[in-house]
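Hi U.,

Before I forget, here's the chain from the pilot set. I'm dumping it here mostly so it's searchable later in email.
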Amino acid sequence: QVQLVESGGGLVQPGGSLRLSCAASGTMISIYTMGWYRQFPGKQREWVAGITRGGTTNYADPVMGRFTISRDNAKNTAYLQMNSLKPEDTAVYYCNAIKEYGLISTYWGQGTQVTVSS
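Structure:
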């Protein structure tokens, strides 16, 4: 059974940093494009950042230059380094793994709360 488990969320002051981790079990993330999404209260989940199997990264405009997505296939873990955090970054952050070839499959983590407040 495939599981993605996020960690690293919490309360941070504006301008601070957090690093989210997404640890996978039951599969190898090397075959997936990994992504991070976030969901604000009462809103649809939105894409934040993605990293392909080859390491190409992409970011949503609101986080460009502040967030960095990475992956360590040997540790079967993806990361989201979040710097210069703003109150408007407050949301539940979700990890996603998607395999877009062969048997298409996608998995989600349970989410981790990030709160940016003074």
